Amino acid sequence: MAKHNQAHLPRRIPKSQGGLPISIKEQMEYYMGAKLLEVGVNPKEPFFSWSCEEEGDEQVWTYSAYWGELKEEKLREKAAKQAAKAQATGKAAIASVSAPEPPQAENPEPPKRKFWNLFG
């Protein structure tokens, strides 16, 4: 049996709403975490993305999660798109150099999580 490496949650919203309401976005993020736990994936591990397609007088918003090999593939695709966009706008794309991290306090306060605090 093949292992799962992606999960998707679609939601139809009337165009008249003018986009995805925050409450629905938060609900979808919460349910995605539950779905990931259901298939045995740590909700902090995947690469998440949003997409929107228009169908008639509705928008279909999809929240997607990718992990494992597919996560790496999606991250490479995203980096390639960002590099192409940076070149198109005339900016130099520096993919291999990252900025140094700022020094950390001795006992940093854990980040306040809005949704995943139930999972760890």
Shape: globular
What low-confidence regions span 5 or more consecutive residues with pLDDT below 50? 113-120
- Strand % is 15-25%
* Span of the ends, CA to CA: 29 Å
Count of helical stretches: 2
Task: Classify the helix fraction into a percent range.
Answer: 25-40%
Q: What is the H/E order?
A: EHEEH
Q: Mean pLDDT, as a whole number?
A: 81
Total number of strands = 3
Topology overview:
Blueprint: E1 6-14, H1 22-38, E2 47-55, E3 58-66, H2 69-88
Antiparallel strand pairs: 1-3, 2-3
Q: How would you describe what is shown here?
A:
The protein is built from two helices and three strands. The protein has 120 residues and is of the alpha+beta class. It starts with 5 loop residues before the first strand and ends in a 32-residue tail after the last helix. Mean pLDDT is 81; it is low at 113-120.
Describe what is shown at a glance:
The chain is an alpha+beta fold and 120 residues long. The chain has helices spanning 22-38, 69-88, and strands at 6-14, 47-55, 58-66.
Give a quick set of tags describing it:
single chain, 120 residues, alpha+beta, three-stranded antiparallel beta sheet, 3 strands, globular, disordered C terminus
